[in-house]
Recover the amino acids of this structure.
């Protein structure tokens, strides 16, 4: 009984350790536009290296 | 070669200060030694030694001649004398090597370590087990292997019951082992001189075991023999003793019975109820630790799922076609925003932190429980362990027999 408890504890600790060693899920950092949610209007801001929704200026021809 | 060079130096040195006969004899001895005429060399060197016994050179060369002729005792004696006369000679190191080489060739125990400035003494007697006292301090029994000691004059006393004590003064020289060999004489006035007889002495084959009253006794897993007075008479050797009392754990020990001697055992009984209580407590704590670790495991799985969800959001939204309206592609996969991604990331981090905490707490708790469990379950036994430590060159290995 005790042996099984120890084995289970060690196995779950192993799984836990694997979880801790996992990489974090990706955030909004980017290198190119393809790293962003382009369909939602995001583009990669090359200064901040963050995905941002670009607010389009009105075009000249709309005047 | 070095000795020959030494000889030339020595000859040139003594030529001015020593009589011509001494110089002539010593030179002739050295020459004969170099030519391998050892008997001739010995004759000349002995004459040189007789002319001036306080010169170390003749002694040193006589030692070298004796070594060449395999006369180890003479070699040892002459080399010792040379070192005694001038221990700080520039040739002392070589003479010490010569001395030690002859000692080893003579079958004496080699020095076990570099002695440096300290001396060493080895004592042998014609009767083993005699007590050796040096300057009044007991150093052990004979044969006494080379033992480091301060250089100088030493009073060596040898004693053994049934034999006449022997005392002598020796000069222990730094850097070498000084041997003391003593032949003890039997003491005709000694009482109970069984030990004096040559050959094996009669061995006493039974001993006595005394145990406190009030216990049920088993010896070698069987009922004990009839008591004689307050003791059991047992064959000399190792026996397994088991004592039992109501409400206590059995007390088992291996007991060595020596011939003619009384062995008294004083058992310390362990209260069975108390021990099992500790054991039960350990079991519960270990179980609680296991539950907490299991909680950590569940939290780890939740964290892992949240991480997968975040990665899925990123994968889908990055690959969604930007040239088509969202309403068209939403049928293929629901639209997930940055807020959804951040929520998944937050859940991933939160459950990971909870998992870590639970694991740490659970493992500590389980460790405490395991300690109590071990402490409570430990049987007070003294039997051979289920493994053996086997000495090997450079260390040892632990061996265990496996059976299935």
């Amino acid at each position: 009984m005790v042996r099984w408890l120890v084995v289970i504890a060690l196995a779950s600790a192993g799984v836990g350790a694997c979880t801790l060693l996992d990489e974090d899920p990706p955030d909004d950092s980017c290198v190119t536009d393809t790293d962003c949610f382009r369909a939602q209007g995001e583009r990669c801001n090359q200064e901040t290296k963050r995905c941002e929704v670009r607010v389009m200026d009105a075009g000249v021809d709309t005047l | 070669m070095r000795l020959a060079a030494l000889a030339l130096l020595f000859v040139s040195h003594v030529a001015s200060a020593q009589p011509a006969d001494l110089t002539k004899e010593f030179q002739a001895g050295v020459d004969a030694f170099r030519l391998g005429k050892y008997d001739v060399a010995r004759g000349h060197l002995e004459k040189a030694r007789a002319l001036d016994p306080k010169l170390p050179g003749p002694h040193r060369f006589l030692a070298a001649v004796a070594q060449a002729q395999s006369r180890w005792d003479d070699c040892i004696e002459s080399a010792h004398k040379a070192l005694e006369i001038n221990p700080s000679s520039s040739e002392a190191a070589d003479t010490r090597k010569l001395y030690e080489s002859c000692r080893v060739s003579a079958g004496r125990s080699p020095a076990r370590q570099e002695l440096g400035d300290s001396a060493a003494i080895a004592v042998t007697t014609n009767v083993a087990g005699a007590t050796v006292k040096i300057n009044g301090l007991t150093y052990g029994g004979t044969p006494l292997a080379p033992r480091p000691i301060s250089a100088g004059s030493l009073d060596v006393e040898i004693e053994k019951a049934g034999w006449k004590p022997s005392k002598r003064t020796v000069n222990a020289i730094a850097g070498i082992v000084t041997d003391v060999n003593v032949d003890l004489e039997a003491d005709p006035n000694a009482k109970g001189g069984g030990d004096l007889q040559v050959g094996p002495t009669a061995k006493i084959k039974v001993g006595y075991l005394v145990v406190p009253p009030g216990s049920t006794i088993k010896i070698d897993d069987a009922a004990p023999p009839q008591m004689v007075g307050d003791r059991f008479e047992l064959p000399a050797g190792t026996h397994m003793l088991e004592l039992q009392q109501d409400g206590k754990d059995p007390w088992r020990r291996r007991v060595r019975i020596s011939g003619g001697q009384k062995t008294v055992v004083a058992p310390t009984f362990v209260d069975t109820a108390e021990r099992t209580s500790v054991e039960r407590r350990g079991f519960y704590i270990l179980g609680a630790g296991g539950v907490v670790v299991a909680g950590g495991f569940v939290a780890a799985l939740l964290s892992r799922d949240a991480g997968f969800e975040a990665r899925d959001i990123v994968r889908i939204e990055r690959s969604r076609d930007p040239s088509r309206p969202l309403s068209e592609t939403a049928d293929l996969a629901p639209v997930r925003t940055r807020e959804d991604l951040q929520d998944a990331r937050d859940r991933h981090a939160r459950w990971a932190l909870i998992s870590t905490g639970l694991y740490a707490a659970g493992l500590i708790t389980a460790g405490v429980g395991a300690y109590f469990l071990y402490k409570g379950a430990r049987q007070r036994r003294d039997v051979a362990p289920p493994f053996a430590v086997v000495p090997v060159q450079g260390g040892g290995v632990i061996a265990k027999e496996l059976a299935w």
